[in-house]
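agent> fetching stored inputs for the magnesium ion docking request
agent> found them:
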Amino acid sequence: MPEKPVAPEPPGPDAPDAAGTPAAPDRSTVRVLLRLWPYVRPVRGRLFTAAVVAIVASCLSLVIPLVLKWMVDGPVADRDPGGVWLGALYLLLLGVTEAVLFGYRRWLVARPLSGVEARMRADLYGRLQRLPIAFHDRWASGQLLSRGTTDLMLVRMFLAFPLTFLLVNGVTILAGYVLLLAQDWSLGLVLLTPVVPLVIVCSLFEGRYGVVARRAQDQVGDLTTVVEESVLGIRIVKGFGRHRSQARAFRDLSGQLRGTELAKARLLAMIWAVITVVPELAIGAALVLGTIQVADGNLSAGTLVAFLSTALALRWPVESIGFLLAMSQEAATATERYFEVMDADEEPDTPAGTGAASDGPDGVRFEGVSFRYPDAPEGSPPVLDGVDLHIRPGETLALVGGTGSGKTTLTALVPRLHEASGGRILLDGEDIARMERGRLRSLVSVAFEEPTLFSASVGENVLMGTDGTAGEPELRRALGVAQADGFVDRLPEGSGTQVGEQGLSLSGGQRQRLALARAVVGRPRFLVLDDPLSALDVHTEARVEAALREVLRETTALVVAHRPSTVMLADRVALLSEGRITAVGTHQELLRTSEEYAWLMSGEGKDER
Ligand SMILES: Nc1ncnc2c1ncn2[C@@H]1O[C@H](COP(=O)(O)OP(=O)(O)OP(=O)(O)O)[C@@H](O)[C@H]1O
Ligand SMILES: [Mg+2]
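agent> prediction call returned; pasting tokens
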């Protein structure tokens, strides 16, 4: 299987400088995450309510120390057991309420957030369908897959926890500090001292963690690509005994990923240590100072108890900030990766069809068409360089040329799978660049060299070639043209039989015939066939050709041909050589006049010329 390059920006396995920061230096986590707003907007009410509920719940935990203070200075000091029981009951109620509120918050956000995730995923999928072939040529499929799965999960988790809890914890910590300072401002100041170093450490951490998180997510994408390729290419992998080297490639990548995950863990451990130890030291200092004050009689025991338990209640909000920041970073890089795909240029839309068809049918015209692949190496000649060709209405034209001469490329220009870089293509006098894509593609039907089938029934695969109105009669006719009715009827459930992923449960020739049936089922005005019979034995080929002749009579067709037998289907032949059409004529004419054509048709092998 050809190795696809990984996405241009994210570092991949063949970019050993994976340590390079993919994140721009001025990249702001908040700015990146704000891009989620359009998706979050519809559920903002729920999220806001949930945040308020969480704030109330979290602040309830700060009331507990006040009850303790009341108990210590009141009933405990007065040795009043009734009061102690009452206090205990209050504490129990507070605890239960807190738990119920947190549960309620979870319930509030769960459904809307999975809705957000589903919407983002649907948008990504829609986008992937609309992005041009050139984009898919460039991006490894595993990178796209991981963006639609792991990354979106990270985003959802961010919306569920860090988004709310960074706010909740912020408010709780503020409220807690106000309480602490109100109870005893000098002890409160002692607890404020760690704030500055903690803020510095957190911001350092955030930057570093962002880089590593991005690297880990890109590596997940690369790993997905390897898995996908070896599953799809399992026949090659086994046939060539490549399972060891595939396994090694996988192990190397997963080793790299493990390294990155460990780097993440180290960073987390570091921030966790700092965030827990520093406040602990401050609490220790406050305890010593407080005890001295109580001994001197400057402070009531209840106040000290309340003070310390407030400080302890603040421990969790403070400590959790480390991993909340980490999750936010991961969500930010995931968002970045998501929008890298969403921001990619779609196929440019065309102005509404102004170039209306001229005087009746005119067939297909190529006028000075040139094309080069966007990712072709600098300075290489264009694949097509000034192609002029006219396929008359109703005519079948065979396109012949050496392998790699650009035949497939030329055929892909007609349904605009690629955009011609120069010149124009006219269908019945109408410039395809001005046609709406949907209409163009309903006029033109294609069958490619490599027949692609989907995990669906045989019938569904074939009827994909229609606008949805076609039914059983059209299906039978198309299967008949492709000489596929025989084997389809022998399948366990006829045309209702499911073909496996990519149709791999069928033979190459069977797949090719279904692809041909799909191309002809909608009776297209223009038919483009890229070597449609290459995988058939001569007898089947002859039968398909006989049936195909009927179809070709009704349409204007461009048929890429490698073999004389396929050429025989056509009225005329065009020879593609070095990016242009160098000869057009009947088979016999070209055999006489073109040395290259005679050589191509002589069957002495089709080596690269
Ligand atoms: N996606 C791509 N990106 C860059 N170059 C490409 C791409 N696809 C094809 N090419 C190059 O364009 C040239 C023409 O390829 P094309 O597939 O059109 O040849 P072809 O005439 O159909 O060959 P064959 O007879 O083997 O099917 C080749 O040199 C090929 O390397
Ligand atoms: Mg080809």
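agent> quick read of the result: The first strand starts at residue 364 and ends at 371.
agent> awaiting further instructions
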